[in-house]
Write a structure and sequence with these properties.
Blueprint (H helix, E strand, L loop, with lengths): L5 E6 L3 H12 L4 E7 L2 H8 L5 E4 L8 H8 L8 E6 L4 H9 L4 E4 L4 H21 L7 H10 L21 H9 L9 H8 L3 H14 L2 E6 L7 E6 L3
Helix pairs in contact: 2-3, 8-9
Length: 237
């Protein structure tokens, strides 16, 4: 029996863009359009009906795409995956979206071939995550996170799975950095560097990669003076 198709919700305030993106999605084997809406509030409501992937525009008429992302992460125990499709590509928006664990960020305008490639890659990574979670032995850090949060985060392939890591990064060191992080308490670069016996610069490179891949979340701690301290923690499952 073939696997059930991946249900996709298309969110875009432009009616023509919604229709076009729905056609693109329906043309990719293994995917089906579960709905198409033009506002952030409708997107949040629609996800409760059950979807696997949201194609989310950042510019919506009622609430921002970033706010939708944050709301989706608090809906139920397991929220849908999100692929951003937006003309917004300023650093602030992109970083906020990546911190919210999106599976990709596709800048408009894009071709049908570009979206197809992203969806096919997502389908492969989704299957890999599913396979990795079946009947495998748990490391001590995963057991600790299971006790703390009730769930285990499977590290995306881009952080050290079948895809090669960026030049200069090594999978064993990446695993050490992940083990040094906590899902509740944020850690600074210096704290992670000390725990992993790394230089501050090296720890920062690994943390930046993990944040960009969505495996960890970034927050800030504000003191009385100077710049806010950047804190890193494991993204919630």
């Amino acid at each position: 029996m073939s696997a059930a198709p991946i249900r996709v919700l298309v969110v875009d305030d432009d009616q023509g863009a919604r229709a076009l993106h729905c056609r693109f999605v329906d043309a990719v084997p293994g995917f089906t359009v579960a709905g198409a809406v033009g506002t952030g509030r409708d997107a949040i409501v629609q996800t409760r009906a059950g979807v696997d992937l949201v194609l989310l525009d950042m510019r919506l008429p009622d609430v921002s795409g970033i706010e939708v992302l944050h709301r989706l992460r608090t809906v139920g125990d397991v929220g849908p995956d999100v692929l951003v499709i937006s003309s917004s590509h300023d650093q602030t928006t992109v970083r906020q979206a990546l911190a919210a664990r999106v599976v990709g960020y596709l800048v408009k305008p894009f071709t049908e071939a570009a979206l197809r490639e992203r969806l096919e890659r997502y389908r492969e990574e989704r299957q890999a995550r599913s396979d990795a979670g079946r009947d495998r032995p748990l490391a001590q850090g995963e057991i600790d996170r299971l006790l703390a949060t009730g769930g285990i985060r499977t590290v995306p392939a881009s952080t050290g799975g079948s895809r090669p890591l960026p030049k200069g990064l090594a999978a064993p060191t990446l695993a050490r950095v992940l083990e040094a992080l906590d899902p509740v308490t944020g850690r600074s670069v210096l704290e992670v560097a000390t725990a992993c016996d790394l230089s501050r610069a090296t720890a920062h490179r690994y943390l930046t990669h993990l944040a960009e891949s969505g495996a960890i979340a970034v927050s800030h701690r504000y003191g009385r003076r100077g710049r806010p301290e950047v804190l890193y923690r494991l993204a919630p499952v």
